[in-house]
Amino acid sequence: MKTFFKSIRSAVAATMLTAAFGGAQAQSAGYLLVHFTGESAHGEQTYMSVSTDGMYWTDLNNSQPVLRSTVGEKGVRDQTIVRSPDGSKYWILATDLRIASGKGWDAAQHSASTKLVIWESTDLVHWSEPRLVDVAGAIPNAGCAWAPEAIWDPASNAYIVYWATISPLNGVDKPRIYYAKTTDFRTFTAPQMYIDRPGTQGIIDTQILEIPGSVGGYKYVRASGDGQITVEGSQSVLGAWTTIGDLSQIGLTGSMVEGPILFQFNNESKWGMWVDQYASGKGYLPLTSTNMGSAQNWQKVPSGSFNLGSSHKRHGGVLNLSAAELSRLNAQWGGSTPINRIQSSNFPDRYVRHAGFTSVRIDANVSPLDDSKFRVVKGLANNSGYVSFASVNFPGYYLRHKNFVFELAPYDGSPQFATDATFKQVPGLADAEAFSFQAYSHPTHYIRHYAYTLRLDAISNQTGRSDATFDVTN
């Protein structure tokens, strides 16, 4: 059942990507993948990767989470990303689940959250705080809401949000695909049955893709995990669907692969499907097709002809990008940032370190050493001339001030957090060859140590200037 529900996440998540904005061909510069990495301490958060060709991918933010969930179960899986038809907004939807906290798969399937976690943005770089929306709570005896997807439906003048839920119906307790409508990803209609399979056969991981020009004879194509990776076509999102086939003709069955991710290659009548080789633990295998109306057309991409990046990709969603969108993402989170230590200038045997998250100080002989390792990254609130300090051993956590005292905390996506975690790196107040860090939110205040504890202070004397001066070392 564990792999069965991994499938629920993957196929459903891929569906909403391209269809949500009504045609991938207008987006011609690259691709964004949002995903999680697994059940590790920090794996069930939102990661991002980009590509210019859909085959070779680069992790953003040094392979660390870009967004963290601070709501619900404080973990997210099965991310998908949606662009509004006019291109003015984006949403990330995810399963509210944290297996790493000790929750077993049986509990996850039958008594986990019926809510989704949602972020909202106008530029792909600045995201709202995460919010919870209960989409499946009205389903009788609902066990969970898995692998959300969404697609804009012109016929409904709304987004169709769909997901998998396990619940008993007609004497059979199994996963089925349900849907609800929304125009703003805040208010949703009551859940309704969307896809069911005969008998005891469940269905998970459904993803719908809009096919510009109805190439292959269908306006929409979907892939689902239902014992196979079944491909179907339709002329409308909520209309009747016709079975096109499955992937068994290329030697891939539902016992071997799951979690399909669908997308269209930019400026081509060519499509990609990623399938997770869960049975062998090899990760995603890319497939390509030039005719979405035939399952016989799917082909495996040869080994060596693709690279999915450094992190292990798990159930995510792909969004086709314009040049401006790709540029913004790379400016904010691209490139490789070295690992550094922040050394006190006037106590050179001491380094900035976090201890128990609520204490940030300068210590000698730091143990564990990784508590004193940071990446000095582009500022969360301003990426031009400003920096933030990202923890190395707690990915997604940053140094921030709160009431002028420092802590190490997970980035919650809020403007307040970003402001409190952003600093201007300037020549050292006591030594111009070193550095001082001026608060973005309080330009008259600087990071300094006082009695070895880090705090934010206005600097008015030589002692303060010395305490506020640091070296950035390897």
From TrEMBL:
GO terms for molecular function: alpha-L-arabinofuranosidase activity. Transmembrane segments: none annotated. Residues 1-26 form the signal peptide. Keywords: Signal. Residues 341-472 form the Alpha-L-arabinofuranosidase B arabinose-binding domain. One of its GO terms (biological process) is L-arabinose metabolic process. InterPro entries: AbfB_ABD, AbfB_ABD_sf, GH43_arabinanases, Glyco_hydro_beta-prop_sf. SUPFAM superfamilies: AbfB domain, Arabinanase/levansucrase/invertase. It holds the Pfam family AbfB. CDD domains: beta-trefoil_ABD_ABFB, GH43_Bt3655-like. This is Alpha-L-arabinofuranosidase b. The lineage of its organism: Bacteria, Pseudomonadati, Pseudomonadota, Betaproteobacteria, Burkholderiales.
